[in-house]
Amino acid sequence: KERGQGRVLGEYFCGVCKLWDNTAGKGEHATKSIYHCPYCNVCRVGKGLGIDYKHCMKCNCCVELKKGLTHKCINQALEGRCPICIESLRTSTKPLKALACAHVMHDECYKRYRKDRYTCPICNKSMDDMSEYFSRLDQAANASQMDAMFANTRSRILCNDCGSKSIVQYRLMHHKCPRRACGSYNTRVVETMVLRPGAPEPTS
Ligand SMILES: [Zn+2]
Ligand SMILES: [Zn+2]
Ligand SMILES: [Zn+2]
Ligand SMILES: [Zn+2]
Ligand SMILES: [Zn+2]
Ligand SMILES: [Zn+2]
Questions:
Q1: What are the CTCHY-type domain coordinates in residue numbering (predicted)?
Q2: For residue range 142-196, what is the model confidence (pLDDT) as tens digits?
Q3: Which residues crowd ion ligand 1, with CB under 5 Å?
Q4: Ligand 1 mean position, distance from CA 117 (Å)
Q5: What does the radius of gyration of the chain's CA atoms come to, in whole angstroms?
Q6: Cβ atoms of residues 105 and 88 within 8 Å
Q7: Where do runs of H (alpha helix) occur along the chain?
Q8: Ligand nearest to the CA of 121
């Protein structure tokens, strides 16, 4: 008798891939489940298409379905590849992570990369909701005294999150985007300038 697809008593067998996995549902893998994507033609870790993953025909890979996360199709040179390890996401069987900016990478690559960075390697936007971290930077900025020698120094910054340019008080690091709806610290200094004493604040 041939086994079909699906889980049999914590065991998973895929008739297409001839993949056999008996770790699912056991011990540390208690929550692990596997499904076969007929479009990717591989078995992936996940509950299934339409449950926690969907296959995007345009990107030709499986993308995570999560509340509040809308998949935007990847339009990039690295199309369909993990930006960290460059492996093709389509044929990769590892779990994938869709970022807030909709770029996709391996979950394990994300976890490793996220340890020291919070910006997307492709578009530089914040990969997660950073509001907690940003409010800690707000507190630190409010608590620290500005060096009087920089009183007339300004930074022209570009916000990686909202894309707006602004001129703000110079700081050694962590320039905050002044747009009220944004407030991100994910900014880049494009120019540093010193104002003549008494000169009006530059607006652009
Ligand atoms: Zn399979
Ligand atoms: Zn797929
Ligand atoms: Zn897509
Ligand atoms: Zn990767
Ligand atoms: Zn991105
Ligand atoms: Zn901004």
A1: 9-81
A2: 888 878 889 999 999 999 999 999 999 999 889 999 999 999 999 999 999 999 9
A3: 14, 16-17, 36, 43
A4: 34
A5: 23
A6: no
A7: 107-114, 131-143
A8: 5
